[in-house]
Amino acid sequence: MVLFFLALVLLCAGAFAFLNGFRDASSSVALAVRTRALTPTVAVILASLFNFIGAGLSAALALAVSQAWLSLPPGTNGLTILLAALLSAILWGVYLWWRGIPSSSTHALVGGLAGAGVASVAVGGNPVMGVDASLLSQVVLPLLISPVIAYAGSFLLVWPAGWAARYTPPNVVDTRSRRAQAIAAGAVAFGHGLQDGQRTSAVVILALLAAGLSDGGSVPVWVALLTAVLLSAGTLAGGWRISYTIGYRLTRVDPLRGFVAQMYSAVMLLVGAIGLHWPVSTTHTVTAATLGAGANQSFPGTDRRLVIRILVFWVATPVVTAAAAFVLQLALSTVAGL
Prior knowledge:
- This protein is mostly helical.
- The protein is built from 12 helices and no strands.
């Protein structure tokens, strides 16, 4: 029974990584496509390549995440908790992709783990240790802080960028900004691979720990390779619904503002992953930075109703996935005979 549920968890972890690349990678290239810095085909290939590199290099970070993140019950109980959390995050991610709403996969996963942990206790199983701290550090604080920092920083950086280009002809500014934006898009994709690659790898490591097949002291090569391949494969599939929302519906940006938003997003992702070991949502960061850069111009170009709708879904994400995982864990506990 343990090996059966382990296989299901690995299958869902792979699907989660694929969906993550499918949804979130479009965020990294949306502005570059919108400002014609990159063609859609080149943008997707570029994002896929740097996602693969970032996810592959995130293996060492994943080990630290799995050791400090959560402690699952051993055996079938822990595996069903992971399975319920992954299924709820996948279902919610597919629904939001269909709606064209950018959201955080990490928030969905942590919310699912919290809901499944509560359900485990309700049926007499063991709790998920550390989930309270995880909700605070990986959902509540990033939800409140990172979009604000991304919006404010991007808004303020438009001024020095515009001042530096004040004597340059507009067509030259646009050309240079597009070239720089192509580099920034790759940097955002690399940061996305680092951030979300370590989360998927950490889930696999937790599953191996629960199944008694790992001591948690190292990351098997196949775990990093699995995460990197599926994340980049999802990127190649291309989730253009969300890309269209960020690039065309949210606000209007020129190449200069697009470069500012993407470069600042890349800096936040890399500092969060490498410097602070802090989970920073690629979707939240890019969306907020795009809004900040788009807001700092002389004419209004932001769809406020869409912004409010996105914020509502951001807040609802951990709540909905927690409720869904709670129900799924009750059902899986019955199947597993817990």
